Amino acid sequence: MTDRPEAPDAAAPLSLRERKKRDKLAAIRVAARELFAEHGVDGATTRAISERAGIGVGTLFSYFPDKQSLLTHLFVTEIGEVADAAVVAAKGSAAPLVDRLLGIFRAAFAWYARDERLARAVIREFLFLSPDNKRAFEASSLGFV
After folding, report:
1. N or C: which end of the chain has fewer CB within 10 A?
2. Burial of 58 from C-beta contacts in 10 A (0-12 / 13-18 / 19+)
3. Residue ranges per domain, the chain?
4. How far is CA 104 from CA 20, 27, 53, 96, 120, in A?
5. How many Cα atoms sit within 13 Å of 120 on the Cβ side?
6. Residue-wise pLDDT tens for the chain (145 aa)?
């Protein structure tokens, strides 16, 4: 999954600044995920996301230029993690190829089923994504294939 943010090298200690950035990004992701699921993308304001994340609106915009980019980041990151885990499980399985492939797709569908309101928001917003966000979204989705 190359379009997801790179994970820092686990052996290299993070500086205080890097830890704060990582923690802010995690808080933004949690807040946005919750608010997108509760209110839809249109109903979740950047102010509400910022407040729930415990940051200023300007800080939010330093990470993401708009809600669409934030939603794309959420999807790409989460579905990428699901895909990575599913592929590792499939590679380690002695099951027939068809069963391993079905396992990968079941993992993707389970992500959608886990939070149907957020999944609906992702699917609905996909129709209106900017070209850059659409490419990232499609690349992460095609990671399953």
Report:
1. C
2. exposed
3. 16-142
4. 34, 28, 32, 13, 21
5. 8
6. 445 555 555 567 889 999 999 999 999 999 999 999 888 888 999 999 999 999 999 999 999 999 989 988 998 888 888 888 988 988 888 999 899 889 988 998 898 888 888 888 877 777 777 787 777 777 766 555 5
Q: In this structure, are residues 133 and 72 in contact, taking their beta carbons and an 8 Å threshold?
A: yes
Nearest-angstrom CA–CA distance, 23 and 17: 10
At the fourth CATH level, which superfamily is domain 16-142? Tetracycline Repressor, domain 2 (1.10.357.10)
In order, the DSSP letters of 35-64 are HHHHHHHHHS-HHHHHHHHTS-HHHHHHH-
Please tell me the distance from the alpha carbon of residue 6 to that of residue 38, in angstroms, as a whole number: 29
- From residue 90, give the alpha-carbon distance in Å to each of 29, 67, 81, 108: 28, 34, 14, 13
Q: Which positions ≥6 away from 22 have C-beta within 8 Å?
A: 8, 14
Tell the residue number behind the tokens 């993401």, with chain if given.
64
**Chain-centroid distance, C-alpha 83:** 12
